[in-house]
Amino acid sequence: MTEAVRVEKVVKTYVRGRQPVDVLHGLDLQVAEGAFAALMGPSGSGKTTLLNLIAGLDRPTSGNITVGGARIDAMSSRALAAWRARHVGFVFQAYHLMPVLTAERNVELPLLLTNATAGERKRKVAAALELVGLHDRARHKPRELSGGQQQRVSIARAIVADPPLLVCDEPTGDLDRESADGILGLLQLLNREYGKTLLMVTHDPQAAEYATYQVRLDKGRLVTAHGAMAVA
Amino acid sequence: MKYARLVWAGLWRKKARTLLTMVSVAVAFLLFGLLHGIGRGLNNVIDHLNGKRLFTASRYAPLEGIPLAHRDRIARVPGVTGVAPWVYGGAYYRDRRNALGVFATDPATLFRLYHEFKIAPEQLQAMQRTRAGALITKELAAQYKWKVGDAVPIGTSLWPAKDGRTTYTFEVVGIYDRGRTPLNAFLINYDYLDEERWAGTGTAHYYVVGIDDPRRADAVSRAIDAQFANSPHETRTQTEQAYLASSLKQIADVDLIVKSIVGAVFFTLLLLTGTIMMQSVRDRVAELAVLKAVGFTDGKVAAFVVAEALVLCLVSAGAGLALARLVFARFAGMIGVVNMPPSVIATGIAVAVALAAISGLLPAARARRIVVAEALARR
Cβ of B287 and A82 within 8 Å? Predict the structure, then answer.
């Protein structure tokens, strides 16, 4: 099975005040293409840090990170931005939609970085909103949508440019159970039907059940990994 | 172009704040347009004045006046083509707050010296026949809705009549086009005023002197002044441009005042817009971080912030300058400047761009430095 993500001996150290704080201690991880991996663990275990490193939002202090065959830890920040635009879709706990833009304009954002024409962008945005079940809310602004609907818009934004990797940081953390199940079902659909590789940070064991593979971190180390996913 | 909507939307993240900032910037540019417009307009008017006119006034006491006898002596100086007396009226219409530019002169000679003035010949003849007649500009006629035949009561604080009254009644006998001259004047007959007034009889504040060759203006000026050297009424003769420019300087250094006011306003504005843009970036750290997360580079995000500042300043400046242009004629018409010089608009736009660039610089640098992981971790 092809490898989507390879993390090798990754160390991440932050400096808080004058004190260096080790968040990840030489962590190794491989995720296969098409996997739906849940990263779990207590607060401060390094889950979000690991997710940010894999998504190219942050850089490791040492170690290598290869995503889709590209060594992203060695890229310049400009190259990394371009890489993210093509290869990663983001879903955040707090949705992080632009409050002044309508749902369709929020979804369109990643496409502004492509060469797509206005017509193509419109078509792709409509398809993404259709997929998340919000085609009738395209002209609504975030404040006019429920939490679950806002998260669906955020998922539409994540998939509109068709990136192979989706990273989701506590995507259901702010939602009630019913809305959370809807979002998780949608993520599962994207994984199963559209072949997206998903990495999801979650505290919620029920959410983790939707993943095919669960990785548990504690104090910056990978402690267990189990599930129905082939690991290279 | 595809980013325009994003820039515009970012600007309206806080509607009230943006609107108030825009109003502040627009008012500053309204002030800029009016002050600069008047300053440059006056300079333009002075630059376009006919070089064939000199003004002769008292060397040491310009307001006291010079004897009427000077007129004939000036007229005899070689190169002089005509001499018209000029007396300030110190006048008002109905109320002292309605100051009016009433001047006593010899209209026939004055219209010969001011080729820019256009009037129907029969109206000029009527003025010569009507002692208490008045010739008014089209602007005054429009402003006060005066027409030929109207009797207009004019009060004066300078020239009470021999019978003690301070109000004279004049009959409008003609309406003239003053061209591009700054004289929005209500002209009356010198002879009539001189006969009626209680004090100052036989004097004029200055003489308008026509010459045949503008290149000889200096020589003729010196010749006129030489006539009266060492007399009780020494004169100082200047070209009309020089006279008006120095008169304006005596009232106020318009350029200095304009530059000082506009400088202070723009410095304050720079601090205001800079602070507001910085606050706007602080409020949107997470949103800007998301833009970076989805692939916008640091430079592009910084450029958005500068573009927002640019749009804010240009739209507001445009509104302020447009408003200034609208109200300009009403204010500036009084001093003969009809249209706002295009250079004022061009300078205004350049100032707006500079204002945006400077005020957007720090906020853009702040936006550029946003670290996505840190910014999103805080939310």
Answer: no
pLDDT on residue B335: 54
Q: Which amino acid is at B288?
A: L
What strand order describes the sheet that includes A3-16? A19-32, A3-16, A62-67, A70-71
A96, A98, A113 ranked by CB distance to B9: nearest: A98
What are residue B51's phi and psi, to 5 degrees?
Answer: -80, 0
Give mean pLDDT in consecutive 10-residue pieces for chain A, a chain of 232 residues.
88 87 90 93 91 94 93 92 94 91 95 93 95 93 94 95 94 88 92 93 91 90 68 36
For residue B168, is pLDDT > 90?
A: yes
Residues on chain B bordering chain A, Cβ-to-Cβ distance under 8 angstroms: 2-3, 5-6, 9-10, 12-13, 286-287, 289-299, 371-373, 376-377, 379
Contact B13 A100 (CB under 8 A): yes
pLDDT digits (tens, 9 = 90+) for B259-307: 888 888 888 888 888 898 899 899 999 999 999 999 999 999 999 999 9
Judge whether A119 is closer than 8 Å to chain B, CB to CB.
no
What would the two tokens of residue B85 be? 């007396």
Task: Say what the ipTM of the complex is.
Answer: 0.90
Q: What residue in A sits closest to B370 (Cα-Cα)?
A: A57
Residues of A within 8 A of B286 (CB-CB) are: 94, 96
Looking at residue B338, its pLDDT comes to 56
The residue assigned the tokens 């085609």 is A135
Closest CA relative to residue A80, chosen from A89, A95, A90, A70: A70
